[in-house]
Amino acid sequence: DAGVTQSPTHLIKTRGQQVTLRCSPISGHKSVSWYQQVLGQGPQFIFQYYEKEERGRGNFPDRFSARQFPNYSSELNVNALLLGDSALYLCASSLVWDTDYEQYFGPGTRLTVT
Amino acid sequence: QQQVKQSPQSLIVQKGGIPIINCAYENTAFDYFPWYQQFPGKGPALLIAIRPDVSEKKEGRFTISFNKSAKQFSLHIMDSQPGDSATYFCAATSSNDYKLSFGAGTTVTVRA
Questions:
Q1: The CATH number fitting domain B4-111, selected from 2.60.40.10, 3.30.390.50, 3.40.50.2000, 3.40.50.620
Q2: On chain A, which terminus has fewer CB atoms closer than 10 Å, C or N?
Q3: CB of B93 less than 8 A from some CB of A
Q4: What is the pLDDT of residues A43-81, one digit of tens each?
Q5: A59 in B contact zone (CB under 8 Å)
């Protein structure tokens, strides 16, 4: 069975640009969460989606947005990129949102902002 | 502010040794405590998890100890092997929101 997949693997952008990251959850999983992992730190929660609705948002600016599609895949968008947005962006999926604790992570997208 | 404090930042053990990683939390709403293992260039992989109604849980060579009154939990890696060399993260979440709060990570190196 395929795990969580993310694309692209690596991305280099310039300050001020916009970026879209994509995630496909494990088959059968309906909830997707996004995390930002800065080098040398633990992942920080950005968003959680279930059945196309936002169920949670972390302490990130409005430049960060996301959405979930009917097939449960998800996109994370970041506008007006800053150097500090350079990080590994992780997607995690879980079976449902409100009764399932176990989250499974994808390999991440490494974003470098220059 | 970091809701889960993890220590040490790094540790080195010989093969067969028992690395111990400690975590502490303040939020009493937390009711699920997973540990993740992360290799360079990979996403975190769920290793083992515990709920506060249990004081210890073992899965293979990995053991979690949980002290609810002290709001602390720890990971022990028994008979550690060089393949266990990785960064380990403790995390916590609650049934209020199911979002994971991670510790800062511990880099474990097991020397052959």
A1: 2.60.40.10
A2: N
A3: yes
A4: 999 999 988 899 899 999 999 999 999 999 999 999 999
A5: no
